[in-house]
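Researcher: Quick test of sequence recovery. Tokens follow.
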């Protein structure tokens, strides 16, 4: 496939996926401003985020890395007429086995686990058991969501998995705030939500002609089983290490502080999550091309894709970051209980910078992970996972919530530097061009231009004015300096449909 065709598909899917995620962002922003910061909600919100972080961090073990296996081996299994040779039931079976083993181990050691995690939290001690069904349902739902990307189906599954949770969770917490339901029922209804997500994604895959639950053991030759087993074992370790290195912050905050502090941290994380929207969209649309180009050894198109994704993600990330940071004080002022939740302001800063670092590195992690050199990342990930936990244990008592964000920034930076070096060493590729530096300088210039604007006296109006002026100035500079040909071409096609981009 020609590179233009690949980028065309990535752009279309990425734009649709971004629309879905920005809708979720709008909902999440409103909830963060007016619901999650409520005194009667913030602790319950922290509990839910803590339980979800257990599901997220444990996902590589619970699933036995089945989504990674699905991406890596899909080209070998791909045959629509034969139901892709039973790939989906194989992945579902792996997840069920992985979760069952973990559940048995946790049950046998429950007193120790609950004592270690919930020793200072009565609320967590009462509800920690919900992690058993929640992790199973979360694992199956996320597997089905990620499996859909093999067919370039990322929009509808994202609505069903990501966007729906952003609607259901605040609705449940609002009902609790109004005393219509209690926290226990909130958690039960959350489990019911994930059951509906699993069913809905499977029905969508069936409608698109891509759902087959017929297992084909004959296709799994001994050599293929061995290859899958080795890759899955490695992916479990690397996936777990990566999540511990980058996503353990919420879990560590909840373990080392209180559920209320976890809620405050999660509010900052919610705002910073806006930067993940273009990342999720671009990665979801690009991963199948990365796997294909690596399999075909098509280095020319892979290098071009690598650099284009980097500059496009960095530009999008800087736009979102600038809007957030010039509005941060006013965002916190709008929140109820603002004097307490504003402790998360510098958490927001460091988490946002960490996400920018990851965006600038582009597809380097995917290039390593889906190549024959995937084993090289294991040692570095293991060291980084231990380092991140160590940073959290060290920095949270010293810096409070900000320490967890700094630990995440340090871990992500080191991890990406290692993978950048590895990609250069093995493929003679790097994602950066002169424009990466230029766009960073343009963002600093645009932020500086609006930073000292006088206050209007109204927080909401300040946000509109500051974020609006920053967006306009930054967009004009990006287009004027032609930072990304893809962005300029997209704007040209939108405003001048008859003119080539």
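Model:
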């Amino acid at each position: 496939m020609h590179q233009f065709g690949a980028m065309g598909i990535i752009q279309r899917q990425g734009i649709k996926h971004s629309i879905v995620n920005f809708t979720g962002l709008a909902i999440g922003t409103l909830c963060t401003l007016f619901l999650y910061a409520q005194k009667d909600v913030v602790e319950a919100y922290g509990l839910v985020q803590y339980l979800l972080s257990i599901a997220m961090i444990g996902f590589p073990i619970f699933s036995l890395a089945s989504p990674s296996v699905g991406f890596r081996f899909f080209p070998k299994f791909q045959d629509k007429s034969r139901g892709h040779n039973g790939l989906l039931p194989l992945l579902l079976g792996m997840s069920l086995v992985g979760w069952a083993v973990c559940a048995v181990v946790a049950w046998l050691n429950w007193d120790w686990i609950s004592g270690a995690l919930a020793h200072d939290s009565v609320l967590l001690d009462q509800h920690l058991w919900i992690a058993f069904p929640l992790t199973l349902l979360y694992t199956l739902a996320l597997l089905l969501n990620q499996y859909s990307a093999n067919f370039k189906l990322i929009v509808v599954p994202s609505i069903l998995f990501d966007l729906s949770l952003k609607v259901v969770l605040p609705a449940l917490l609002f009902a609790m705030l109004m005393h219509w339901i209690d926290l226990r029922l909130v958690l039960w209804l959350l489990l019911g939500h994930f059951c509906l997500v699993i069913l809905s994604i499977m029905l969508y895959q069936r409608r698109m002609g891509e759902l087959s639950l017929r297992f084909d053991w004959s296709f799994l030759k001994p050599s293929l089983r061995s290859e899958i087993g080795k890759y899955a074992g490695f992916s479990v370790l690397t996936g777990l290490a990566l999540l511990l290195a980058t996503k353990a912050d919420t879990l560590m905050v909840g373990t080392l502080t209180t559920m209320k502090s976890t809620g405050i941290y999660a509010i900052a994380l919610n705002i910073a999550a806006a930067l993940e929207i273009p990342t999720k969209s671009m990665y979801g649309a690009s991963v199948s091309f990365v796997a294909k180009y690596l399999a075909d050894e098509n280095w020319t198109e892979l290098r071009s894709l690598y650099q284009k994704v980097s500059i496009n993600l960095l530009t999008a990330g800087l736009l979102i970051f600038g809007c957030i940071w010039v509005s941060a004080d006013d965002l916190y002022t709008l929140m109820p209980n603002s004097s307490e939740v504003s402790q998360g302001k510098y958490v927001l800063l460091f988490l946002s910078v960490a996400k920018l670092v990851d965006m600038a590195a582009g597809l380097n992690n995917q290039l390593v992970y889906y190549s024959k050199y995937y084993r090289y990342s294991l040692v570095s990930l293991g060291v980084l996972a231990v380092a991140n936990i160590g940073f959290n244990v060290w920095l949270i008592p010293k810096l409070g919530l900000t320490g967890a964000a700094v630990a995440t920034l340090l871990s992500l930076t080191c991890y990406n530097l290692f993978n950048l070096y590895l990609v250069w060493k093995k493929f003679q590729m790097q994602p950066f061009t002169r424009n990466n530096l230029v766009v960073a300088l343009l963002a600093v210039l645009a932020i500086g231009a609006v930073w000292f604007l006088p206050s209007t006296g109204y927080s909401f109006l300040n946000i509109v004015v500051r974020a609006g002026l920053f967006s306009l100035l930054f967009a004009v500079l990006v287009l004027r300096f032609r930072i990304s040909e893809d962005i300029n071409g997209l704007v040209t096609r939108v405003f001048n449909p008859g003119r080539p981009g």
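The CA atoms of residues 206 and 281 lie 23 Å apart.
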